[in-house]
Write a structure and sequence with these properties.
Layout (H helix, E strand, L loop, with lengths): L48 H13 L21 H7 L2 H4 L11 H18 L3 E3 L5 H18 L7 E5 L5 H8 L3 E5 L9 H4 L7 E7 L11 H10 L3 E6 L11 H4 L3 E4 L1 H4 L14 E3 L11 E5 L2 E5 L16 H37 L15 E4 L1 H7 L3 H9 L7 E2 L8 E4 L7 H20 L1 H6 L11 H6 L8
Parallel strand pairs: 2-3, 2-4, 4-5, 5-6
Antiparallel strand pairs: 1-7, 6-7, 8-9, 10-12, 11-12
Helix pairs in contact: 2-11, 4-11, 5-6, 11-14
Length: 482
Amino acid sequence: MHGQKLIFEQSVSGRRGYLFPRCDVPVQETDLPDSLLRVETTGLPELSEVEVIRHYQNLGRRNFCVDVGFYPLGSCTMKYNPKVNEQVASLEGFLDLHPLQDEQTLQGMLQIIHRLTGDLCEITGMTWGTLQSMAGAHGEYTGMKLFRAYFASRGESSRTRLIVPSSSHGTNPASAHLSGFEVVEVPADKRGLVTLDVLKPYLDDRLAGIMLTNPNTLGLYEVEVAEIAREIHRVGGLLYYDGANMNAIMGASRPGDMGFDVIHLNLHKTFSTPHGGGGPGSGPVLVSKRMVPFLPVPDVVLQKGSYAFDWNRPESIGKISGFYGNIGICIRALTYIMVMGSDGLAEASRMAVLNANYLMERLKGTFHLPYNRRCMHECVFSAERIKADTGVTALDVAKALIDRNIHPPTIYFPLIVQEALMIEPTETESRETLDRFIEAMEDIHRLAYEDPSQLKSAPLRTEVGRVDDVAAARNPRVCFCG
């Protein structure tokens, strides 16, 4: 493990962190079958307390996070998590609850669920929703199930075709396909946008709807969204809003006002909750009035001054999660909304857009900008020209940024941009931080032409250097076999 042993490799037989006194309580008989009783030792590593502490402290120092440095990861932003969110979510009254408690003992938590759902509806222009979805992709899948339930209730099972733009997140077609829809991909025009013209061949009674991100994954606002919504509704279809980029338009534009019927939100992107390493996540789903009857159960309702679970939804798609969502993340999101207020949320989006446009304008003379128009919260450059001239790829640029204490941006996405570098600065970064990033990118560009071999070997200043990405993907070592 390149300079640091695994904790199992540090194990010394007989070493202990704590030595408990011998048990003086009589051993009780158990009704458990023999197959469930342990007959061998656990095989856990044996270390002293200080060795364990040092091991995990050293591991932590090797980790890069938004609290350590700039994290311009486009499309799935690592947004700064205000510490007040963590403090509120750690309050004693939130830590020791169980979802199967009596409703009267959960009134505070139920109020939070009800309040957050309402606030998210106000921000997005939707009617009601659910917090059950455990991630954005789970929200998409839930949305597609809502589409299916809606058309089934109308006897329109023939509506199986779903439009997905070529610039969409990869989870969009996956969610649609898993839900039984026929996915039709449509291209973006030379501006990077979806136009009504490319949709016209599919505007018939087979159309279930469209999944659209606005702003899209190029960071560009879909200017024809109102016309697209009108035409899809005219032929009986629905619109799904991928809310991954909602953080660009809070306080300025609402998906509900654009005409969307179902949306999901990525709480980690827009509302500053933790994210990374596969979780924790939360992807609330919000819907227009016509879709409310199909929402998952149970709903949280206010009846006679008391909050309660409502299971009486005969057209519901049922439960989509074991309980009621990743509630710890939801508490953090509500804290953020209440601290920021409506003016603060709108200002956050304005600053995100300002920062992205500042980077775009400063760097477009250095890196190729395939779609040269005002962006929203993120911008997408291309290293295609540098690669043609020097052999330096987008991957090399990303690795070189690590040496400069900057997390790489998203690379090779969206797929419609060759050698893509997708950069999202977020609203919390200062101009000084953005300037340092610009200087780093300009320096990398200079090295690409003066000393490309240095970039091909990056990172050079980290404990673990350049790895074989293909071998790591094909033959991952995910367990210790000592």
